[in-house]
Amino acid sequence: MPVDDPGRLLSSFGALGKDSPQASSGGDADVGSSAEEERSRIEEMSDSETPLIVSRFEANLIRILRFFLRQVPFEQAKPLIEGKHARPNCLSAAALHLIRDSLAKGCVLYLVRAGAWRRERFLRGTKAVEGRLWERTEPERLGLSFSGEILEFLLWVTANSPRETKSWSVRVEALTPADQLLLFLAYEAIRTEPDLVEGFRHRPGFVRNALCWLMYPGDFAFALDALPSLDAWMQEPGALILEAMQGTLLHRWVQIERNKGQIAHWDRMRQEGQAEERILTALTQAAEKAGRPDLVRFLLQAAGQVLSPPDMTPAFWIGGLQGGGPARLADRLEIQRAALSLLREMERLQRWERHARNVSFYDDEYASSQLWKSDWERLQGERITERARQVLQQLEPLRMQSGSGT
Questions:
Q1: Which of 116, 236, 320, 377 sits 20 to 30 Å CA-CA off 76?
Q2: Domain ranges, residue 11
Q3: Which of 244, 272, 295 is the last residue of a domain?
């Protein structure tokens, strides 16, 4: 049963969460059937033991999708991504069923492996709840909802080589957090392939993707003005994705900090430092506005790991820079400051802790304040902040002395 409008498959994602708005039906008789009938036909396939038959194009699309979901090796997906394939007018119900099944299982499996399995404490309304993600969250709130934009992306990447200029028309404002998760996974899967990643990196679906920015800010330093808002990620379901990815984000930011000592070019350090500063500021401001300091816990943990050796100096971050750099001292200092953007965010996190001390039991933010105070003490926030301040003072003693005296 063919479906020729990407929006029409939205009802097939019911098992992933809330149904998305339905697109209008096309003129094809099969497409004209109701969304309920379409879903019923697709769900019947889940109970059938008969092997599903799909076209060559559909098989390629599903294989590429499973590569993005870490279920197929790159060697099998590369020729399919690089090649060009005639795009069909419609997809079969069997293909839609397999796409739905792959998304439902693959995205959930990724989040579980990323950290949803860990027993941690996060805010739930007016209290902090401990447990694995599915233990501290009601089942009906765990759904991932995909839009038709994802099917359009999969059709585009299967039919066209990313190297081509043929655009993938995406409505960025229509992308759900689940859509952005899948696009992030697609970007990460091909990030180490220079010939392919350039075909993704400059397209709006990636350059305005919050997860891509949080994990690889330096990759998008060319588009600082395109920095996405993180406000939506402070609410469910985006917040649940961030909770699950805390461990992954922690590992990545430790890696980012440790790799800076290998950067030799001043321009590259400037670009990466500015991008990191932008996304860190956007993240902490959004968390502060929403009262969700627990969602940036990974930053405190990352700084703690990086600053664990005593007597750290700025050379750990900027020691690899070659040559004299920009002619103006102010420009050189600004680049060096940008390289230490994570350390400078520790002062904001400390201010949160100071504010939390004065929050009373009757205040709305009592639960979030108590949780942040607990995290701050458990992760030794004072020690981390003091070590960060010592490193920054070595880089810019006059500014730090002035700041500490106000």
A1: 116
A2: 1-244
A3: 244
What 3 state SS string does the chain have? CCECCHHHHHHHHHHHCCCCCCCCCCCCCCCCCCHHHHHHHHHHHHCCCCCCCCCHHHHHHHHHHHHHCCCCCHHHHHHHHHCCCCCCCCECHHHHHHHHHHHHHHHHHHHHHHHHCCCEEEEECCEEEEECCCCCCCHHHCCCCCCHHHHHHHHHHHHCCCCCCCCCCCCHHHCCHHHHHHHHHHHHHHCCCHHHHHHHHCCHHHHCCHHHHHHCHHHHHHHHHHCCCCHHHHCCCHHHHHHHCHHHHHHHHHHHHHHHHHCCCHHHHHHHHHHHHHHHHHHHHHHHHHCCHHHHHHHHHHHHHHCCCCCCCCHHHHCCCCCCCCCCHHHHHHHHHHHCHHHHHHHHHHHHHHHHHCCCCCCCCHHHHHHHHHHHHHCCHHHHHHHHHHHHHHHCHHHHHHHHCC
pLDDT at 398 over 70: no
Most confident of 49-58, 61-70, 134-143: 61-70
Choosing from 207, 229, 244, the residue where a domain stops is: 244
One-letter amino acid of 108: V
Residues 189, 288 within the same domain: no
Pick from 270-279, 370-379, 387-396: least confident:
387-396
- Look up the pTM and report it: 0.86
Greater confidence (29 vs 226) lies with: 226
Mean of the per-residue pLDDT values for the chain?
86
